[in-house]
Amino acid sequence: MKKSLEIKSVRKSFGTNEVLKGISFRIEPGEIVSLLGANGAGKSTLIKILSGAFTEFDGEIYINDQPANIGSPLQARSQGIETVHQKINEGIVAGLTVAENLLFDRIALGEISRFATPAKMVREAREVLKALSLEWDDQMLKDDVFNLGIADQQLLLLARALSHNPALLILDEPTSALSNAEVSRLFKIIQRLRTDGVAILYVSHRLGEIDELADRLVILRDGVIQTIQDKPFNWTNALHDMLGMDLREAQFGIEEERGTDVVLSVRNAQIFEESKPWSIQVRSGEVTGIIGLLGAGKSELARGLFGAEKLKSGEVEFLGEAFIPKSPADAIKKGVFLISEDRTRDGILENWSISNTTSLPFLKKIASGSLINFGKENDLASRMIEKLNVVTQSHKSTVDSLSGGNQQKVMVGRWLMQNSRLLLLDEPFRGVDIGARREIAGQIRDLVRAGNAAIIFSSDIDEILESSDRVLIMVQGDIKFDSYLSETSRNEIIQKMSEVA
Amino acid sequence: MKKVKTIRTKAEFSARDFLVKYGFILVTLISFVSFFSTQDTFRLSTTFFSMLKYTSVVAITGLGITFSMAVGGLDLSVGAVAGMAVTLSAMTMVIYDKSAIVAVALVLLAGVVIGCLNAFLIVVLKIPDLLATLASMFAIMGLKLVPVKGQSVSSGMMMQDGTTAPGKFTDTFLKIDSGQLGPIPYAVIVWMLLTVACWFFLTRTTWGRAMYAVGSNPEASLLAGINVKRYRALAYILSSVLASISGMILASRIGQGDISAGNSLLLDSVAVALVGTSVLAMGKPNAWGTALGAFLIGVVITGLTIAGFPYYGQDVVKGAVLLLALVFSFTLSRKKSRFISAV
After folding, report:
1. Strand A224-230, strand A216-221: pairing
2. Percentage of chain A with pLDDT > 70?
């Protein structure tokens, strides 16, 4: 049965934070619409509304021009909406066999007995696999699902979704775990579904895929649809709209610093198994910005330089000596600091005060021997609070109680209180308001003016334009472009980023 | 209308906060005072000190648990280590006729060695804490039986070859439990000194701070340059050493190498450390909390025993005390304790 989907003025807020600010678009039967947006644009929220995971929102959803009631994931399915979520773990049930996983929806509904014989399960599972023309043998189907590779797990979820003959299929980053051969097989299936009249919402960061598949492009930024493009797509405009363009462009190129001394040189570095090796040199006295979309390999590089994980291959020289940090502690000792990407997961300690959080990386500096000097510790925190203008009642407040911007100021500020030679900042401006962003960027500038080096890793082009002197572009583990800001333009950067498409 | 509501909830909250923070201390005081005023025997100072003396073994083992909980794990082998300490000190003195000093030194050394082995399993072989220490618990309980052929060792016992064991529990060793400084038993002094030392270590030194960081968020600690492995290893070594100290006090008390000694110690010491996390709404394992938890359980059990409560009901009491503490920590407290939920 063919169905169209229409979304009308959909709004969704979390507390005071409005994530979707009135979204309207339509997908016709046999059409592939691609949703494009940077992190935090609101894509996941929209998908969760359509799949029935979020039931509280404003606005209407129509299926075949009839008001649709999507009150739960089960209701979404009964109306013909199937979703393959980005996180594979959320769909795979550990401890069950591959066959049981393929049939899981039906087992959960009692359509297939939980105690059906393995032979029956395998028979039924084989039917499910037909949709993807996958030929998995009996042994594989009876095996525990965790013995499947990540790509096969992804295919399993796809097959399961297709077994319900959806009228509307939502695919959220379905190819992130697949190899090229599997991707092209998936594309054939998607194209066949389109011919069959299935309406498809396709979400991906890979512009090349979207270019190949999509009939229309819906570009989302900050919860608002910026533009809707029909084929053929203008990728330069699309990236402009996706990444945003605002008054900050006026700042572009102002008082650019140029360093002379090479502090860090990376030779023949490889980020992923299949990515090309590259070499760069990072100088002190200037801020180096590395732009890359999600999954481009930025965090891998940052963590590799910090000793938190190993680079696939390559040689690193720091201050003229070979540099292979065995651990973050080792890197810190040599003056290489990292402010990691996800402050909630990798930075904040629950219920810890600002004082204790600030001193953690440098406990030796606030102690005589091993004895903590609380006066010194509080003094350090107070100075950090003053330096970064952290809005808080006192240095005893817990970091979790601060606003996102102030949390980030603490995360950055604690590293600025000691001398670093090379500061690595992975997405330092994520979830940070513009005021805090300026403050943090200013501090980084002061640091390089004092003769140090800094690398900012970001997926937001404006953040890099605002904070860096030199810009590198990273695409799928490869450094594609290297220039001082004054020698390039925003358009050229966007051009280079979209060239992959 | 709105204003009234705000004021009421505020008052409600502060009463709740007060309860979360001081509730446990209050319960301890109330039970102490009520036993003190109703039971004549409870009022005797000898009762008080012998209660503390009996509590000290569980309390010191609980300090060890406090360390393993501080790094986000749990050491299940502490009871077995204490039991090993009992057998080992008996063997050293009774079978090998060595002095108390040698026995103490050997037991402490064994504590360090077992701690290192636990640390090796957890840090190097990467076996989850609970499972690694469960395995070592069984291994230690079994291995200590091998040299003594599964027999309890007592002074003047018959040896395998028909001769009488040459040595005995020396008077010096027996003094560990029975000796007193003024009215205060040595065991209680050891307990207090160790509590102060652990409190100081955990709250005043960079080592303790790093341990709490590891327990709170290991990845964040690693990225802040903390040597996570080192501190986890250290916690398990300290845990074992403290358990071997409490085992020595136990050996001195029973005066023989009872092979079943220490068996019930694990659950009791986990309970006192857990109770300790709710004291003053700390939300994390801490030395004084553990001491107070042990004290409360000691008071309630002594008081009830004097009042004629049967000995076989003791575990019910421990369970109730633990449950009460957990209500303070989880039901009433607004901050989640990652340390306990990790267990």
Report:
1. antiparallel
2. 96
Find which of A303, A351, A401 to mutate to test the B interface (most B CBs within 10 Å of its CB).
Answer: A351
The whole-angstrom separation of Cα A493 and Cα A374 is: 48
Where are the domains positioned within chain A? Answer: 5-243, 258-335+421-441+450-501, 342-418
The sign of the torsion formed by the CA atoms of B141, B143, B144, B147 equals positive
Which residues neighbour B90 within 8 Å (Cβ) at sequence distance 6 or greater? B152, B153, B154, B169, B251, B256, B257
Residue A403 or A471, more confident: A471
> CB neighbours of A241 closer than 8 A, spacing ≥ 6?
A219, A221, A226, A227
Q: Which residue has the higher pLDDT, A379 or A350?
A: A379
Q: What pLDDT, in 10s, does the model give residues A458-495?
A: 987 878 888 999 999 998 888 989 999 888 888 888 88
* Alpha-carbon dihedral angle through residues A140, A145, A150, A153, given to the nearest 10 degrees: 80
Confidence of residue A120 (pLDDT cuts 50, 70, 90): confident
Q: Which residues of A touch B336 (CB under 8 A)?
A: 350
d(CA A495, CA A91): 37
Distance, in Å, from the CA atom of B223 to the CA atom of A2, rounded to the nearest integer, reads 52
The sign of the torsion formed by the CA atoms of B278, B283, B284, B287 equals negative
Q: Which of B207, B216, B283 sits opposite A349 (nearest CB)?
A: B216
Given this model, what pLDDT does residue A110 score?
A: 81
CA distance B227 to chain A (A): 7
A–B interface: beta-carbon pairs under 8 A: 67
- Selected for mutation to probe chain B from A372, A424, A425 (highest B CB count within 10 Å) is A372
Q: Which fold has domain A258-335+421-441+450-501?
A: Rossmann fold (3.40.50)
Measured between beta carbons, the chain A residues lying within 8 angstroms of B213 are 349, 352, 360
pLDDT of residue B73: 95
Structure tokens at A18: 């409005």
Question: Token digits for B12?
Answer: 């409600």
Task: List the CATH code of the domain at A5-243.
Answer: 3.40.50.300
Kindly report the number of other CB atoms within 10 A of residue A264's CB atom. Answer: 22
Q: Give the whole-angstrom CA distance, residue A427 versus residue A233.
A: 29
CA-to-CA dists, residue A181 to A102, A145, A178, angstroms:
22, 22, 8
Which segments in chain B show pLDDT lower than 70? Answer: 1-13, 334-343
ipTM of predicted assembly, 2 dp: 0.87
The total of other beta-carbon atoms located within 10 Å of residue A445's CB is 18
**Taking residues A121-131, what's their average pLDDT?**
86
- pLDDT above 50: residue A293: yes
H-only helix segments in A15-97? 43-50, 73-78
- Residue partners of A145: CB distance under 8 A and separation at least 6: A92, A93, A94, A95, A96, A97, A98, A100, A101, A153, A156
Tell which residue, A444, A3, A485, has the closest CA to residue A200. Answer: A3
**Which of A320-329, A407-416, B149-158 is the least confident region?**
B149-158
**CATH classification (class only), B26-342:** mainly alpha
The helix/strand/coil state of B241 is: helix
**Hey, how many other C-beta atoms are within 10 angstroms of the C-beta on A289?**
25
Determine the pLDDT at residue B81: 98
- Going from N- to C-terminal start, the domains of chain B cover 26-342
Does residue A199 contact residue A169 with C-beta atoms inside 8 Å? yes
Please indicate whether residue A109 or residue B66 has the higher confidence score (pLDDT): B66
pLDDT for the residue numbered A245? 57
Please count the other Cβ atoms lying within 10 Å of the Cβ belonging to residue A474. Answer: 24
Shortest CA distance from B339: residue in chain A? A350
Name which of B204, B222, B283 is nearest A372 (Cβ-Cβ).
Answer: B204
Identify the bridge partners of residue B205 per DSSP, sorted by sequence position. Answer: A371
Contact A46, A21 (CB under 8 A): no
